[in-house]
Amino acid sequence: MNYFVTAIGTDSGKTLVSAILTEALKADYWKPIQAGLPADTDRVKELVKNNKSRFHQETFQLKTPASPHAAAQFEHLEIELTDFMLPGVNNRLVVEGAGGVLVPINQQNFVIELARQLDLEIILVANLYLGSINHTLLTADFLKRNNYKVKGLIFNGESNPESEQIIEKHTGWPVLLRLPKLGLINEETVSYWAEQLKMNWYE
């Protein structure tokens, strides 16, 4: 199975989680839409140390740090769902989204629709902050109502047991990993948390 890493918002930790997943599964990595620099693909390359993973070219490399629809418009481009095809791989693939689930890629479509079009199972990153319960449960409600396939949750940030418990209860999804607030993030950090992820992984 291939996986789509999305989150409850921007800067929730998708790139770090994608690196951990890529290392744990020795999977390939692909970021279909990059908006702004530095590129997330370059960062994941720096953090993954196994020799099996391959890193695939973005379909769209947009210079403007904005939502894809706005960045594309600024650069006189149009993004369509039909522009995207999975890279040819003989390996599992970790696909990193852009922002949260309802980030627009054009006037009609949202980034989460790539998961359905490309038959990807979703891993939802929920960072923990005041208001994150609401944002996580709203995201979960959207995914459930629209029949998306969800693998599980990854919590990111300083532990908040009450928030985590209520989110687990109302989503009914397994927690694949609980990432604490990390100071130093490097190959060793990612390798350690990749091993922790494997303990909770199920096929």
UniProtKB/TrEMBL annotation:
Pfam families: AAA_26 (PF13500). Signal peptide: none annotated. Its EC number is 6.3.3.3. It catalyses: (7R,8S)-7,8-diammoniononanoate + CO2 + ATP = (4R,5S)-dethiobiotin + ADP + phosphate + 3 H(+). The active site is at residue 31. Its main location: cytoplasm. ATP binds at residues 11-16, 40, 96-99. Mg(2+) binds at residues 15, 40, 96. InterPro entries: DTB_synth_BioD, P-loop_NTPase. Its cofactor is Mg(2+). Keywords: ATP-binding, Biotin biosynthesis, Cytoplasm, Ligase, Magnesium, Metal-binding, Nucleotide-binding. It is found in: Cytoplasm. Pathway: Cofactor biosynthesis; biotin biosynthesis; biotin from 7,8-diaminononanoate: step 1/2. It is an enzyme of class 6 (ligase). It comes from the Bacteria. Homodimer. Catalyzes a mechanistically unusual reaction, the ATP-dependent insertion of CO2 between the N7 and N8 nitrogen atoms of 7,8-diaminopelargonic acid (DAPA, also called 7,8-diammoniononanoate) to form a ureido ring. This is ATP-dependent dethiobiotin synthetase BioD. The lineage of its organism: Bacteria, Pseudomonadati, Bacteroidota, Cytophagia, Cytophagales.
